[in-house]
């Protein structure tokens, strides 16, 4: 109920604002255009609300494919219109002054009775003017004139400002979303990162991880995208594949076919997986996906660790559940995953959310691999993510623990990425050079 209330409130506020700027400010009151556009906004509000609720309600899932694109457009319309509020505010006083001047026609300038105009006496001026000399024109008289500035000037200036802002915002939003769709649905970029770990055994120098997260298998991705991601990972020839959560957004029954290509993952020491928050949004929880991934040859690390032997040395690779696992009695257990190990060994922890490094740093974890943030996915949301997570993307640090956060290979919600292209990372460990 809290989720539904929040979604409804946010969507209502955004659509009321869009109606005010895109309909009320661009059409005349009482016209058919305003009525039609108003109902369009109401219908799109319903679509957006149903789409977000559809991520949790089975019978609404079918609308999400269409609604998420509209949500992206709504977001960027809001961004562009909000930015345009500043020039609108500056232009409004100028427009009002011009409108006031235009409201009094030139022939209504007050004159003294008996004064001569342009060499002619008022008595010779011909038929009397409907506007008496020395008197300001009445509102009724102006309203009766079809070419009066009060009829055309004020309205046209208001419409001009409103329609110009709407056109700029609309063009900006559609262009941004168009490029964002191309980025989100295109191939992930390959990021190559080298991380120097002060305690790394020299024999582990050069050990590589293919880090991928937030794949978000769903109805908009399809099996071809899964095959592309697998192909790109295999081309990296990594020693270890690390899938750091949010791999799926629905049940095995709906998405099992999309996950099958991941049975072809190749690496020297295997592929490992930890749950993300979205695995716990799947009906009945992550249990069926855990078993499905095992059958695909991917080993889940559920509050546990394994030893990676390389070059005669051993590295501890651990994994903890996402913090949302607490709702299924599967909370992250750092003690189970990290306690009792050889303190001289280098440790790498897979944990979906960067904020989990706060707890991991207490266990002397050398490197944590995470996802979850999508790098913000759609700028300027990247300005908000740091309010919740200590690292937005790339390499950071929490205490003595280094944290690498992948932007993810997929998307959630709108199939749009702006300023944060999808990625797969080849991360190479380095021992300190003397």
At CATH level 2, the architecture of the largest domain is 4-Layer Sandwich
Output the radius of gyration.
32 Å
CATH class of the largest domain: Alpha Beta
**Class based on secondary structure composition and strand pairing:** alpha/beta
CATH superfamily of the largest domain: Metallo-dependent phosphatases
Percent helix among the residues? Answer: 25-40%
Mean pLDDT: 86
Shape: elongated
- Enter the CATH topology name of the largest domain: Purple Acid Phosphatase, chain A, domain 2
Structural summary, described in words:
Helix 8 links the parallel strand 4 and strand 5. About 12% of the residues have low confidence. It is built from ten helices and twelve strands. It is elongated and about 90 Å long. The chain has three domains: 139 residues, no CATH class; 33 residues, no CATH class; 242 residues, 4-Layer Sandwich (Purple Acid Phosphatase, chain A, domain 2). The chain is an alpha/beta fold and 434 residues long. A six-stranded mixed sheet has the order 1-12-2-3-4-5.
What are its keywords?
434 residues; alpha/beta; Purple Acid Phosphatase, chain A, domain 2; 3 domains; 6-stranded mixed beta sheet; 10 helices; 39% helix; elongated
Question: What's the topology here?
Answer:
Elements: H1 2-24, H2 32-54, H3 64-102, H4 139-144, H5 149-185, E1 189-196, E2 208-212, H6 222-236, E3 240-243, H7 252-259, E4 271-273, H8 287-295, E5 298-300, E6 304-310, E7 313-319, H9 334-338, E8 347-350, H10 357-360, E9 367-370, E10 394-398, E11 401-405, E12 423-430
Parallel strand pairs: 1-12, 2-3, 3-4, 4-5, 7-8, 8-9, 9-11
Antiparallel strand pairs: 2-12, 6-7, 10-11
Helix pairs in contact: 1-2, 1-3, 2-3, 3-5
């Amino acid at each position: 109920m809290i989720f539904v209330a929040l979604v409804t409130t946010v969507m209502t506020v955004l659509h009321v604002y869009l109606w005010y700027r895109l309909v009320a400010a661009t059409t005349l009151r009482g016209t058919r255009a305003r009525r039609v556009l108003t109902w369009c906004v109401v219908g799109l509000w319903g679509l957006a609300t149903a789409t977000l609720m559809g991520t949790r309600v089975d019978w609404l899932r079918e609308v999400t494919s269409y609604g998420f694109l509209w949500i992206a457009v709504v977001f960027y319309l809001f961004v562009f219109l909000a930015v345009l509020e500043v020039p609108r505010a500056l232009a409004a006083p100028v427009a009002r002054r011009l409108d006031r001047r235009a409201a009094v026609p030139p022939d209504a300038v007050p004159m003294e009775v008996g004064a001569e105009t342009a060499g002619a006496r008022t008595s010779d001026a011909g038929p009397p003017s409907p506007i008496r000399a020395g008197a300001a024109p009445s509102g009724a008289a102006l309203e009766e004139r079809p070419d009066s500035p009060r009829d055309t000037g004020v309205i046209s200036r208001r419409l001009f400002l409103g329609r110009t802002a709407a056109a700029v915002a609309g063009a900006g939003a559609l262009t941004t979303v168009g490029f964002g769709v191309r980025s989100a649905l295109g191939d992930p970029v390959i990021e190559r990162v080298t991380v120097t770990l002060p305690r790394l055994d020299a024999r582990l120098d050069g050990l590589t991880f293919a880090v991928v997260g937030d794949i978000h298998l769903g109805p908009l991705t399809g099996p071809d995208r899964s095959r592309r991601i697998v192909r790109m990972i295999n081309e990296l020839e990594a020693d270890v594949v690390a899938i750091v959560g949010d791999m799926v957004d629905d049940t095995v029954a709906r998405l099992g076919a999309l996950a099958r290509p991941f049975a072809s993952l190749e690496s020297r020491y295997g592929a490992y997986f930890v749950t993300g928050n979205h695995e716990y949004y799947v009906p009945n929880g992550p249990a069926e996906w855990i078993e499905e991934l095992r059958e695909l040859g991917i080993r889940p690390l559920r509050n546990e660790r394994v030893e990676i032997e390389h070059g005669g040395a051993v590295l501890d690779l651990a994994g903890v559940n996402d913090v949302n696992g607490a709702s299924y009695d599967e909370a992250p257990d750092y003690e189970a995953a990290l306690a009792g190990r050889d303190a001289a060994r280098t440790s790498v922890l897979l944990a979906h959310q960067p904020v989990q490094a706060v707890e991991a740093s207490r266990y002397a974890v050398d490197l944590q691999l995470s996802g979850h943030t999508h790098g913000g996915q759609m700028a300027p949301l990247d300005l908000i993510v740091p309010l919740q997570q200590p690292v937005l993307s790339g390499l950071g640090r929490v205490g003595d623990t280094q944290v690498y956060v992948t932007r993810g290979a997929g998307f959630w919600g709108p199939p749009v990425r702006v300023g944060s292209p999808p990625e797969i990372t080849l991360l190479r460990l380095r021992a300190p050079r003397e």
